[in-house]
Design goal:
This protein is of the alpha+beta class. The chain is built from six helices and 27 strands. A nine-stranded antiparallel beta sheet has the order 6-2-3-4-18-17-16-10-14. A nine-stranded antiparallel beta sheet has the order 15-11-12-13-27-26-25-19-23. Strand 3 and strand 4 form a beta hairpin. Helix 1 runs antiparallel to helix 2, helix 3 runs antiparallel to helix 4 and helix 5 runs antiparallel to helix 6. The radius of gyration is 25 Å and the shape is elongated. The protein starts with a strand and ends in a 7-residue tail after the last strand.
């Protein structure tokens, strides 16, 4: 195998593929990236039996072939190369990488031991890439990180005709976003659970084109797998085989109080008062007509207080939240003014957008923290 490629194109392709490789692969070959040259194109692939990634790059190829090299090492080398075209040449058990005056020789890994990459499932439809990336970022923040509860570490994707719904929860907050898309079949209906980390990476890095293609098997080959594709890039991941909590009934249908709050002012206030709060200690919010008073800490460890102007309707209310969870919800709402809706101080509150570039299709439910006494 022998080819010549632009440094930036190679660096981007290898970095994107290597990002999904396992830090501690079960077998050494799974830490490699597969380089395949055919018909003037280089395909860089990675696979760990759960997630696969592939990206195509135009090259000047003189000899076709396949080679397997350490993914993380190749990513570091390609990122550090000088700004000149890169030449690859396989010579026996080694590959030589030349760029300007720099030259590296790397050992090849046994390509015959590398697993066969999964094929892309059947195309289900396409969605606007920027909208999908925003929706995933809004929802994935609420996904759990405890691998002993796999049903909470994923994002539930629900397909109902021309609408997608994304939902994630860690039991303490719940984020839900709806968005339009273009399905291949008008009456398509499906529900799957996707690992949140993989979905976030795919949505964030496949935005080079206007649309992302979603591929989902309806049976047979590719069952239990979802695929994402953008210009010259594609990724697949195994779905989580777990039952997502029934979440729709958690959203109250009526409210006893609402507060319209300037997002940036509240975010800054929460960050400041939380400085005196120990890990896991809540921030207290006292709502009254026109004013929100925030309090954190106590007499022993330090105390912070601040006020923010709000448009509040309802009886005065005192409620407390985990400050990190509250900040996540306010950041995800993408609005200048957010509305917090309440039933009682002991039941969940919901944050939605009021203006700005926020969307009424996003809801963030957050559980309150019980105050002492």
């Amino acid at each position: 195998m022998k080819f010549r490629v632009e440094r930036d194109a190679l660096s981007d392709a290898v970095a994107w593929t290597a990002r999904s490789l396992p830090a501690r692969p079960a077998v050494p070959v799974l830490g490699g990236v597969l380089l395949e040259v055919t018909d003037g194109a280089l395909t860089v692939s990675g696979f760990d039996y759960e997630v696969s990634t592939q990206v195509e790059v135009e090259v000047q190829a003189s000899v076709a072939g396949r080679a397997l090299v350490s993914g993380r090492l190749l990513a570091e080398i390609s990122r550090a190369l000088p700004p000149h075209p890169v030449e690859f040449a396989v010579d026996g058990p080694k590959v030589t990488i030349s760029c300007g005056s720099a030259r590296f020789t790397l050992p090849l890994m046994p390509v015959e031991d590398y697993p066969t990459l999964p094929t892309m499932p059947t195309t289900a439809g396409v969605v606007e890439s920027s909208v999908f990336a925003q929706a995933v970022s809004q929802v994935a923040v609420a996904a759990g990180r405890d691998d002993t509860l796999p049903m909470l570490t994923g994002v539930r994707l629900e397909i109902e005709g021309d609408r997608l719904r994304l939902a994630a929860t860690d039991r303490y907050r719940l984020a839900v976003r709806e968005l339009p898309w273009k399905p291949e079949q008008d009456e398509l209906d499906a529900q799957v659970l996707i690992p949140a980390r993989t979905l976030s990476e795919s949505a964030k890095t496949l935005t080079t084109g206007p649309e992302i293609t979603l591929a989902l098997a309806s049976g047979g080959a590719g069952e239990g797998m979802i695929g994402f594709a953008g210009p010259a890039r594609r990724a697949t991941t195994r779905l989580l085989d777990a039952e997502f909590p029934k979440y729709r009934s958690l959203f109250p249908s009526e409210w006893s109080a609402t507060a319209d709050i300037p997002v940036s002012a509240l975010l800054e206030a929460v960050k400041r008062v939380a400085l005196v709060a120990d890990r896991g200690t809540p921030v207290r919010l006292d709502f009254s007509d026109g004013v929100l008073a925030l309090t954190a800490g106590g007499d022993d460890e330090g105390r912070a207080e601040e006020q923010v102007e709000v448009a509040f309707s309802g009886d005065p209310l005192t409620i407390a939240f985990n400050p990190a969870f509250l900040q996540d919800g306010l950041t995800a709402v993408h609005a200048g003014i957010a509305r917090m809706s309440f039933t009682t101080s002991s039941k969940p509150s919901v944050i939605t957008a009021v203006d700005g570039d926020g969307t009424v299709d996003f809801r963030y439910l957050i559980m309150p923290v019980r105050l002492p006494g």
